Amino acid sequence: QLQLQESGPGLVKPSETLSLTCTVSGVSIRSSTDYWGWIRQTPGKGLEWIGSIDYSGNSYYNPSLKSRVTMSVDTSKNQFSLKLKSVTAADTAVYYCAREVRSFDFWGQGILATVSS
Amino acid sequence: EMVLTQTPGTLSLSPGDRASLSCRASMSVSSSFLAWYQQRPGQAPRLLIYGSSSRATGIPDRFRGSGSGTDFTLTISRLEPEDFAVYYCQQYSSSGFTFGPGTRVDIK
After folding, report:
1. Which whole-number Å values give the CA distances from B25 to A43, A68, A69, A78, B32, in the listed order?
2. At B33, is the secondary structure helix, strand, or coil?
3. Angle at A46 between CA B45 and CA A8, to 5 degrees
């Protein structure tokens, strides 16, 4: 059974970089033609897609976040990662990783990332 | 930019009732790329419907998706206690993914 698990610091200071990792189990990212995505959720803006990446590093991002987002993949660890730079309080959210098949069929449980000094 | 509007914002119904949830897009959406999710409190969203009308694995047949173009509907034929939750539609286009604001189905 495919499972995803987010990890990373729960607290980030304003202007710094939020870094999160998603560990995939039950399938090898290297052998999958699927994309892997990040989605965040806030009470104010609801669900917001951040970006998606495949095993070879091909990625595409939400145009509204593109200037601040970098995603990467580590097939040796079966992980993919998100970096969001220059964060503000508006980036406080629950961040989910998920498998992307033009919809999102498997999700991690989510991780709350708070931006605060 | 594609915008999805969901109505109503809240639907108050009783177990056994039929629920009809609407998702309207600001531009035409390929039926292949319209999905519906259910989210219960404290949980991640769960994929219910993809390709506007195909049920995801393990989703009971009381959930039905329909529609095309800019108008899509999720129908729950008879509400079970576990169906009281928030429902989101989502579309994929060349600009990426957009989610609707959600419809909350609560117990009347």
Report:
1. 21, 27, 27, 36, 14
2. helix
3. 70
- Residue A53 forms contact with B (CB below 8 Å): no
pLDDT per residue as tens digits for the range B73-92: 999 999 999 999 999 999 99
Q: Distance (Å) from the C-alpha of residue A98 to the closest C-alpha of chain B?
A: 10
Strand partners, B31: none
Residues A50 and A35 sit within 8 Å (Cβ to Cβ): no
Say yes or no for a CB contact (<8 Å) between B96 and A61: yes
Q: Do A47 and B46 touch (CB under 8 A)?
A: no
Q: Could you report the average pLDDT of every consecutive run of 10 residues in chain A (117 residues)?
A: 96 98 95 92 92 96 97 97 98 97 96 97
Residue with tokens 């660890």: A77
Whether the CA torsion A9, A10, A13, A14 is positive or negative: it is positive
Per DSSP, the residues of A41-79 read EETTTEEEEEEEE-TT--EEE-TTTGGGEEEEEETTTTE
Name residues whose C-beta falls within 8 Å of residue A71's C-beta, 6 or more positions apart in sequence: A38, A51, A52, A53, A59, A61, A80, A81, A82, A83
In A, minimum Cα distance to B45 occurs at A107
Cβ(B90)–Cβ(B34) below 8 Å: yes
Residue B85 has a CB neighbour count (10 Å cut-off) of: 18
